[in-house]
Amino acid sequence: MDAKEHWFLQGFLVLAMVIAQGATSKCPSSPLCYKKTESATIYTCEWETSESMKNATYELFYSRSNSTESRSLGSSRKSYICVQDNTVLNKALVDIWVVAYMGNWRCQSLNTTVTLSERVKYEAPQSMSMARSSNNLTLSWDNKNGNKDAVIEVKFRRLEETSGTWTFKKEVKQAMVTLENLQNESVYELQVRQMSKHVKHPLWSDWTPILDVPTEIPNPPEVNWTVEDFNNGTRLLKLTWGTPPYPVSMQVNYNLSLHIWPCLLKRKNFTSVTTTEISVYVTYSAVSGDINAFNKVGKSSPTHILVPAKHLTFPSKSWPNDRLIPLNYAHGFMKSCLEWYKLTDGETRPEKVNRSKLNGTVEKKLKHIREKMDDYVRYYYLVHKQTDGKPHSTEMCLMYKKEGAPSKAPDHFTAPILNVTTNSAMLHWKPIPVPDQRGFLTHYEVCYTRRGPKNESHIETECHNSFASKTEYLVQNLTPGSIYYIHLAGATAAGSGPTTTIEIATKPLPQSVIGWIIAGIIVLIAILITVCLFIIKRHKRKIFPPIPRPVVAESVNYRARNQNMYEKEEVHELQLHDNCSQEPNPEEATVLEVSETHECEDTDEKCLRESSTPVSDLLSPDYKGQVLRLETPDSSQGEIDCMVTMLMYRNGLVFDMKAYSTEDVGIPL
User: Which of 157, 343, 534, 613 could serve as 593's disulfide partner, Cβ 3.0–4.6 Å?
Assistant: First the structure.
């Protein structure tokens, strides 16, 4: 064969091989057969196919290695077939292949020679759980390998290093592996696979999906709660809590359990809560529960929740023998129930409460409850009912089976013990504890007594009542610089209890204050005297009017000599009457009237003087202040004696005078 023929034959062989490889690439791969566990009775044979063969039908065949006879193990349109255990297949060495059919086209895979009992491939770990503590991480999963050890391989890296290399670790354990020396505050990602160590030809399982490993939760949730009271026996409880910081907050959920319905002991659970708040309807009874945060690696310590009951803050009632309470108690424990318990400190609900169950009539039940109660002990009861699935309290009451007087006095006066001034003192005290009240406090009695001198036999005591809800009282109207004894006692409807006594001393008035008070009194008296004198001087003429003095007629010479010595009086009216005749003739009577209007000496008033007779002709224009002379005829002295002179002043004074001389009579005006 020459060189030309040689190259032609070699090219033909290459072409045949390419065609054969092209046809083979469409055929399924050699089948892989295995058991999932050592004790499994079913084999799984799987193969790989191309995308163009997805509509093909596959048939699995086997034959003994020393035989040409083939047998079918089944057909499927999927890329695997499950085969029931067969003694021949399990023990013998066999050849296995797959034939694909698609239309008229047929393709066979390559043969696989295997002893099936020696092939085991575990499933990838499932239901993976993690527990992280300090720097260690423990992984565990469901053990489906018959409690046998396996070879476990883990690859992991920090989440911040997604482009970095994986760290591998192998360990032989039963469905568990522990990773050590991790960074406590870092988030990791990992994958796990496993392999049997009890067969001759084991196979690795598939890798698990990439799993994120968060950090552990160091602190419990901080829970806040608010209650909205609808005043109809129902409250809306809203719970809120904060989200932990990153990276603790990754994949954090919450489990919450609440005791909402008092008639049953069972709690209501809220699992895998993804939000940070929840709202529920509750009764007036106390609500208790717990909440914790959890993620893949663990959970936090629980936070205890306690929402107190809506207790009454005022006295309610006692339970007399002739009355059964409560009123709104219905039959049926699921629909209505009675809850009652002691209030040891007046507010706190005890851990153990009493819940009633109907074993007979309501009356018998209530009588039985009353027999269990103690005298002088405060109880609290509530009646609960459910309507349309919403719980509410139909009745609530603070009560005593029987009341008594307090067994203890109020605690000693607290600091500041007393705020004492000169005339008052503020008292502060601690309330009587509820167990010592033995009933509902109606008021506090505050009495105080002033200690008098030794020789004083009568000592007054004054008492007042203070509200039971108050723990302070202001004592007023005390005497400065005195000693008082103050007595304090609590009182119920049954009477007053023991008293506590304290002695106080009011502060004396400072000397400087006394001096200022005296000086003030002196100044006030001086001001009053000054005002009175001013008023008297201002209205002197009204209060003490002046008395006019009449002017006596004198001789001309004497009057001239003593003209300056006379005090001039202004005559308002002058009348002369003749008394000699029994019936005087009005025409003969000489009447002189002089009047004028002038200012009085008092500037605040005006005196009006009017001329009633035309006598101005007898006087000069400036007659005021002149002497009025009356010329009498020289008939006889007897006529003069019969003349009567009458002077009439403005202020109403009248003087009668009689002429005794024949001389001219002068009246100063």
Answer: 613
DSSP 117: G
Residues 170, 579: Cα–Cα separation, whole Å: 169
Whether 669 is covered by a domain: the verdict is no
pLDDT score at 608: 38
In this structure, what DSSP letter does residue 352 have? Answer: S
Q: What is the pTM of this model?
A: 0.57
β-sheet bridge partners, residue 17: none
Q: For all residues of the chain together, what is the average pLDDT?
A: 76
State pLDDT tens for residues 33-83.
888 888 888 888 999 988 888 789 999 998 887 777 888 888 898 988 888
Q: Which of helix, strand or coil describes residue 53?
A: helix
From the number of C-beta atoms within 10 Å of its C-beta (0-12, 13-18, 19+), residue 322 rates as exposed
Distance CA 472, CA 466 (A): 8
Listed residues 379, 400, 421: the one ending a domain: 400
Q: Which of 445, 439, 441, 499 is closest to 469 using CA atoms?
A: 441
Higher-scoring residue by pLDDT: 469, 208: 208
Q: How many CB atoms lie within 10 A of CB 200?
A: 9
Tokens of 659: 């002429």
Q: Looking at the domain assignment, is residue 239 inside a domain?
A: yes
For the sheet containing 136-140, what is the strand order? 129-133, 136-140, 176-179
Nearest to 109 by CA among 166, 39, 176, 62: 62
DSSP string spanning 202-269? EEPPPPPPPEEE-----S---EEEEEEE-SSS-EEEEEEEPPPPTTTTTT-EEEEEEE--TT-SPPEE
Domain of residue 416 covers 411-505
Q: Based on the domain organization, do 136 and 205 belong to the same domain?
A: yes
Q: What is the pLDDT of residues 467-489, one digit of tens each?
A: 988 889 999 988 888 889 999 99
Same domain, 117 and 175: no
**Residue from 346, 354, 336, 351 nearest 395 by CA:** 336
Rounded CA separation 380/262 (Å): 14
Where a domain ends, among 180, 213, 246? Answer: 213
pLDDT for res 291: 96
Is residue 88 classed as helix, strand or coil in its secondary structure?
helix
Tokens of 454: 């030794």
Q: Which of 488, 485, 487 is nearest to 503 (CA)?
A: 485
Residue 171, classified by CB atoms within 10 Å of its CB into exposed (0-12), middle (13-18) or buried (19+), is middle
Question: Which residue type is seen at 615?
Answer: V
- What is the token pair recorded at 311? 């207790």
* Domain assignment of residue 274, yes or no: yes
Element (H or E) spanning 8, and its range? Answer: helix 3-25
CA distance 609 to 22: 161
SS (H, E, C) 481-549: CCEEEEEEEEEECCEEEEEEEEEEECCCCCHHHHHHHHHHHHHHHHHHHHHHHHHHHHCHHHHCCCCCC
Give per-residue pLDDT as tens, 548-600: 666 555 545 545 555 555 444 555 555 555 544 444 444 444 444 444 444 44
